[in-house]
Write a structure and sequence with these properties.
The protein is α+β, with helices and mostly antiparallel strands. It has 2 domains: about 230 residues, 2-Layer Sandwich (BirA Bifunctional Protein, domain 2), CATH 3.30.930.10; about 45 residues, SH3 type barrels. It is built from 6 helices and 14 strands. Helix 3 packs across helix 6. It is globular.
């Protein structure tokens, strides 16, 4: 893993912290000019006792990745690439532990937080969620999220630690080398600057996302994820429509109607014969609607 710090990375971090309106998220925050992967760095930090809410940012990721090993490419200094350390399995005085079986809700909470912060910044148009981990504006992808788990430091937090990685195209206007020929079902990329027709300040946006994420994260403990599921379903693309999903490992495809979200955030899919399948984000990818 390569890592370096710079004045610009520190400036982004300092500016974001000045805008923070959170209790935990972004406190502390670590900024890098160049990093292999913010998720890898956050996972390593968590293994050595990173507190809940710790954030890693990078101006340039050299090995950013998404679900199923896909590469995430972004131009240096133009976007937001960051990861958040969460301890959902650790109970506290004001909450019970979140069952690992419901960790899928964390990715939905993250996507919802991005939608809400983006809506404050550039809407209209209203951002939408493509299950399970993409944020779309005008049908084009501006953001992807990646959820990973690892063991915490033994003396720091019981249960697994979750790292939520976010890659948001903010001011990048061109995406050379990005083609949908190999995966025509994937939404083409866009950025907030392209949608808004103007540059977007990244530091206040990062602070807004963290504030929204903190509220949505807490709600998972307050109401078992009901409000997150309801808010996500209001933004989901293809809800109530026929979709095709694929199991990447086997290549098997399933066609059915997207009924909504299960209590753990999984997709409820009604097959042509009437049977309902519950599909989890780690098992399938949505390839068509």
């Amino acid at each position: 893993m390569t890592s370096s710090t710079s004045a610009s990375a520190s400036a982004l971090t300092r500016a974001a912290q000045e805008h923070l309106r959170t209790r935990q998220l972004g406190r502390p925050m670590e900024g890098h000019a160049r990093l292999g992967s913010t998720n890898e760095r956050a996972l390593a930090w968590a293994a050595h006792g990173a507190p809940e809410g710790a954030v890693v940012t990078a101006e340039h990721q050299t090995a950013g990745r998404g679900r199923h090993g896909r590469r995430w490419r972004a131009k240096p200094g133009q976007n937001l690439t960051f990861s958040v350390v969460l301890h959902p399995a650790a109970p506290s005085t004001d909450r019970q532990a979140l069952s690992p079986a419901r960790f899928g809700l964390l990715g939905l909470a993250g996507g919802l937080a991005v939608c809400e912060a983006v809506a404050e910044t550039v809407a209209p148009p209203a951002p939408a969620l493509k299950w399970p981990n993409d944020v779309l504006v005008d049908g084009n992808k501006c953001c992807g999220l990646l959820l990973e788990t690892a063991s915490a430091a033994a003396d720091h937090a019981p249960g697994p630690v979750v790292v939520l990685g976010v890659g948001l195209n903010v001011n990048q206007r061109a995406f050379p080398g990005v083609t949908s020929e190999r995966e025509p079902h994937r939404a083409p990329p866009t950025s907030l600057a392209r949608v808004a027709g103007r540059p977007v300040e990244r530091a206040p946006l990062l602070a807004k996302i963290l504030r929204r994420l903190e509220a949505r994260y807490q709600s998972l403990f307050d109401d078992a994820g009901r409000s997150v599921r309801a808010a996500c379903e209001a933004r989901l693309t293809a809800l109530g429509e026929r979709v095709t999903v694929e199991r990447p490992r086997s290549g098997e495809r399933l066609d059915g109607v997207f009924l909504g979200l299960a209590p753990d955030g999984a997709m409820r899919l009604r097959l042509p014969g009437g049977a309902e399948h519950v599909l989890h984000a780690g098992d399938v990818t949505t390839i068509g609607a």
